[in-house]
Design goal:
By secondary structure, the chain is of the alpha+beta class. It contains 8 helices and 8 strands, in the order E-E-E-H-H-E-E-H-H-E-H-E-E-H-H-H. The strands form 2 sheets. Strands 1-5-4-8-7-6 form a 6-stranded mixed beta sheet, sandwiched between helices. Helix 1 packs antiparallel against helix 2, helix 6 crosses helix 7 and helix 6 packs across helix 8. About 10% of the residues have low confidence. This is ANTAR domain-containing protein.
Length: 261
């Protein structure tokens, strides 16, 4: 993880210090008229950054977090996290507190960033000194000088991706306008993540096809097999060893011999 964190949510009535917080994407347009000219200009610049081809996922996420910390009133640190198949995986952070708090959540399996990711709802901690939902987390947050937080879910195309978290050194740092603006940054980050995941999946498919083709070619050349028969050998070996076909193919392509274990 570098040190520098999607189903369309239904409105949530999750209590937060006596108030109900709706998902950030619900009613994003409401209140945006309050944003000043500098903020609108910065949003436009961020949109252009995210449109640059070959910008790279890491650079894109760093741009999102940097802009969020600079422009969202109250934010002094930020983190972007993935939540896939029950695993909480921090990706990019800005500031010293987020990685330490992320590590605690990974170890305990509970915390505001995990809940925002898993439940796809916005979680606000207005004062870590008084919030009782995650005692171990808030105790460490206070020690690190974090007195309020805002965790916004990342989602796109009905897929849950994770959460964008903002940290402040003062209590009640995030206004309603800041919450809506955080939703916009979360949307940018989610789209960047989804695009990167699709690209990565495509690269893996192409790479797997290539290595299987190489392995088939070796079997055809060394054993005089036809293409279908060579592939059948790979499948049979994978079943015998309880390993994926691509793993068998990788060994054969690298060593010239089928794996034996």
């Amino acid at each position: 993880m570098d040190h520098v964190s999607l189903t369309t949510p239904e409105p949530s009535e999750r209590p937060v210090d006596g108030t109900a917080i709706r998902p950030a994407v619900d009613g994003v347009a409401d209140g945006l008229a309050d944003l000043d000219e500098v903020t609108w200009s910065s949003l436009e610049q961020l949109g252009r950054v995210l449109q640059v081809q070959e910008a790279g996922l890491h650079a894109t996420l760093v741009a999102v977090l940097t802009a969020a910390v600079e422009l969202i009133d109250g934010a002094q640190a930020a983190g972007l996290n993935l939540y896939e198949k029950g695993r909480f995986a921090p990706q990019v952070v800005l500031g010293t507190a987020p990685p330490l708090l992320d590590e605690l959540q990974q170890r305990t399996g509970v915390g505001p960033c995990i809940e925002a990711s898993r439940e796809q709802c916005t979680i606000a901690i207005t004062d870590t000194r008084r919030d009782e939902r995650w005692p171990a987390f808030t105790a460490q947050a206070v020690q690190l000088g974090v007195l309020s937080m805002l965790c916004v879910p990342l989602w796109v195309d009905e897929r849950r991706l994770g959460s964008l978290s903002l940290y402040a050194s003062t209590a009640e740092a995030f206004s309603a306008t800041a919450t809506r603006l955080a939703g916009l940054y979360a949307t940018h980050a989610a789209l960047a993540l989804a695009d990167a995941q699709r690209t990565d999946q495509l690269h893996r498919v192409v790479a797997n096809r290539d290595v299987i083709g190489q392995a088939k070619g070796i079997l055809m050349a060394t054993r005089g097999l036809r293409a279908d028969d060579a592939f059948a050998v790979l499948v049979r070996t994978s079943q015998q060893l309880n390993r994926k076909v691509v793993e068998v193919a990788e060994v054969l392509a690298a060593t010239g011999a089928l794996p034996t274990g």
